[in-house]
Write a structure and sequence with these properties.
The protein has 274 residues and is of the alpha/beta class. The protein has eleven helices and 14 strands.
Length: 274
């Protein structure tokens, strides 16, 4: 019997309008009364918080592709493998030298450049402005990543964007110190070496006293492959690419834009709980 349900957010729980269907919200809320439901996301905890609140979850959340675990109940990081500041400085200089756009996820905020804006961050900022104030993420444009780095406690991850991300990924310094996972055609997320969703989920499940065969993990993107491969049952969304689907044992019959597909699947997998 499955005891843990690990859910990605973007492209999985969220549809293309970044919303959760009424059917899925009700199903997850019901399951969470009996099953450990954990969100495992590439998002910063502040950008996941509105959805966490909407789903009325109680368990901690795994953020930034496995970099840290955040406990909303106590507003505390309960485990992390953040990027060291000296390595972060070198990363910033390397990205700038290769003319790549950069996003930096720090302790409680997401930062991007005023001089080299990133389109998806502009979109995220517009979404954040629609969120009620007490749940609103801190998303800011900055003039200097180095100055911001010196003022923060932790650097969770970087996102780079540009036409030459493949070349950047082959740099010896990057390959040695960072784990990179493509999140779009010209965009790569970089966390500290060894951080993946699968590794973080395995540690989380072990602390609960469960095993991999008691876990269902559902996702849609390359950064979900590690947790789909780890779980007893890995499920890929229909909107996932072929590589992700090949890493899963099951693929949904419809995409994340179908309001019923994930809710119906969960009711099948957890028949006595939903």
């Amino acid at each position: 019997m499955y005891k843990v349900l690990a859910l990605d957010l973007d492209g999985t729980v969220l549809n293309s309008d970044n919303r959760i269907s009424d059917q899925l919200r009700a199903t997850i809320h019901a399951l969470a009364q009996y099953v450990q439901v954990v969100l495992v996301t590439g998002r910063h905890h502040t950008a996941a918080k509105p959805y966490y609140a909407e789903l009325e979850l109680r368990s901690p959340i795994i953020c930034c592709n496995g970099t840290y675990v955040f406990d909303y109940a106590n507003q505390a990081v309960i485990g992390h493998n953040a990027i060291a500041k000296d390595q972060a400085r070198k990363f910033i200089h390397a990205a700038e030298a290769n003319d790549l756009k950069l996003v930096m996820y720090v302790q409680d905020a997401m930062l991007y450049s005023r001089s080299q804006p990133v389109a998806y961050m502009d979109q995220l900022l517009r979404w954040a402005e629609t969120v009620q104030v007490e749940l609103r993420p801190d998303i800011r444009q900055v003039d200097s990543f180095i100055e911001e780095l010196e003022q923060t406690e932790n650097i969770w991850k970087f996102v780079i964007e540009g036409s030459d991300v493949s070349h950047f990924d082959q740099l010896e310094f990057i390959r040695t110190h960072f784990s990179g996972e493509r999140s779009w055609l010209d965009r790569v997320d970089y966390a500290n070496q060894g951080n993946t969703k699968g590794i973080a989920l395995a540690r989380y499940v072990d602390k609960l006293g469960y095993s991999a065969d008691q876990v269902v993990a559902i996702g849609d993107n390359d950064n979900d492959i590690s947790m789909l491969s780890y779980a007893g049952l890995g499920v890929a969304m229909l909107n996932a690419n072929d590589t992700v689907k090949q890493s899963a044992q099951l693929t949904t019959v419809a995409s994340n834009d179908d309001p019923n597909v994930l809710a119906d699947l969960l009711k099948t997998l957890f028949p006595a709980k939903s």
